[in-house]
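Side project, low priority. Logging it here so it doesn't get lost.
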Amino acid sequence: MEYNTQLKKLALPEYGRNIQNMVDYCLTIPDRNERKRCANTIINIMGNLFPHLRDVNDFKHILWDHLAIMADFKLDIDYPYEIIRKEDLYSKPSKIEYSRPDMQYRHYGKTLEKMVKMATEIEDPKEKEQFVLLVATHMKKSYIQWNKDVDDQKIFSDLYDLSNKQLDIRNSNIKLPEMKDLGQRNNNNSGKKNQQKKK
């Protein structure tokens, strides 16, 4: 009895040994046209193994790349696509440079800093007041993820710094919502949404 562990290692195990045997047979066909017909048949069978991927962009191209890999790039046919090169298969991808935004307060995040900048550019006083309150509330929510004890004056002071001293509500009578209230409100909203889904 032959065990798979004793057989040749599969280049792409997801296709199984029968497909690999077909590819190995295709390599032995002397006639070039017959070899191409055999390769097309193998591609169709490979595609039938993963019907849910047919909508993926370049699905056929990927299959031909896989065929070339399983044939160890020795299959001499006219490929309908430019297939992956063997040297590219094992080369390391180039390093991705991650953006490291310069942030004054990292715990608030870059998006919130953009919101603060937007707030400074709003001309309508009433709209500006509402937007500043929204930003300050969001700042409090972000801050409390790192420190459970948060004072509204700390948020107002950070807002003043983030806005380059353009948004000053440090001496105002504004009272930001308690975070437990916000949590309850979010839970109530999610509960309502779940009830609506059940209906």
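Brief comment: The chain has a mean pLDDT of 83.
Revisit when time allows.
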